[in-house]
Design a protein that fits this description.
Elements (H helix, E strand, L loop, with lengths): L6 E6 L3 E7 L4 E8 L4 H14 L7 E6 L1 E4 L2 E5 L6 E4 L8 E6 H11 L9 E6 L3 E7 L2 E3 L11 H5 L3 H16 L6 E5 L8 H11 L5 E4 L6 H7 L5
Parallel strand pairs: 1-4, 4-8, 9-12, 12-13
Antiparallel strand pairs: 1-2, 2-3, 5-6, 6-7, 9-10, 10-11
Helix pairs in contact: 2-6, 4-5
Length: 234
């Protein structure tokens, strides 16, 4: 990847919005603000976040958000119900802006720089309030439109914890992964904060016959924002 100078990457979440200043190889600064309760507040927070990153000359902004996207328009947002066909170019009329689904941003960051680096064929999975899915091969993340929508079993997933959740996922994930046959499965998200959860899930998937590598995500809470900045990579 060529270093094209500094880029701002933004992760729009249901409870917080995180931003990073990315120089092509590392994060220079980060900031985070609470997600507001209405559209005008969201526009104001995005502008304030960029200002707090102290990057007035940065003219490129990448944004990742859960939900369906088209161009710079966030058509719907899984975690922010009031968002409907919101053009995120609005607060940044003079900037080059690129928008993508947050799971694809997570996958892009982990595929190119994190736990999936140098693997050809990576399925990225985030386990949080919802389930984010993305697949990448040949140095790019593929756009699978159905992954912008929830799985049919996601509501059941949200009601489970601990051993019951491990058992549930070990039954559901092999079928989800089968069409892609990745070399590496990268798993991240807040659910992994529970001690031993990743190890238990990996062992359960092994018992179900999953033989490819299963790795914990490396880039932590900056992953989506970094992946959004990487929308400008060459």
């Amino acid at each position: 990847m060529k270093n094209l100078g500094q880029v701002i990457g933004i992760d729009i979440g249901g409870s917080k919005i995180r931003g990073v200043l990315w120089n092509g190889t590392r994060v220079l600064r980060t900031t985070e603000l609470p997600t507001p309760g209405n559209t005008e507040g969201l526009i104001a927070v995005l502008a304030a976040l960029v200002s707090r990153l102290h990057a007035p000359r940065v003219s490129r902004i990448g944004i990742g958000a859960a939900g369906t996207v088209k161009g710079t328009v966030l058509r719907s947002c899984t975690n922010i119900r009031y968002v409907k066909n919101l053009d995120l170019k609005r607060p940044f009329p003079r900037a080059a802006l690129r928008l993508d689904n947050d799971a694809r941003c997570f996958g892009r960051a982990e595929f190119l720089l994190g736990a999936g680096r140098r693997a050809n064929g990576v399925f990225a999975l985030t386990l949080g309030t919802g389930i984010g899915r993305a697949y990448g091969a040949h140095a790019r993340i593929r756009k699978a439109g159905r992954f912008e929508y929830a799985e049919s079993w996601e509501k059941a997933y949200q009601k489970l914890h601990g051993e019951k959740l491990v058992a549930f996922l070990s039954n559901k994930l092999p079928k989800l992964l089968q069409p892609f046959n990745p070399k590496v499965l990268v798993i991240g998200g807040g659910v992994l904060a529970h001690k031993g959860f990743f190890e238990k899930l990996r062992a359960a998937l092994r018992k179900k016959g999953v033989r490819f590598a299963i790795r914990r995500a490396k880039l932590g809470r900056n992953a989506v924002a970094i992946g959004a900045a990487l929308l400008f990579r060459r």
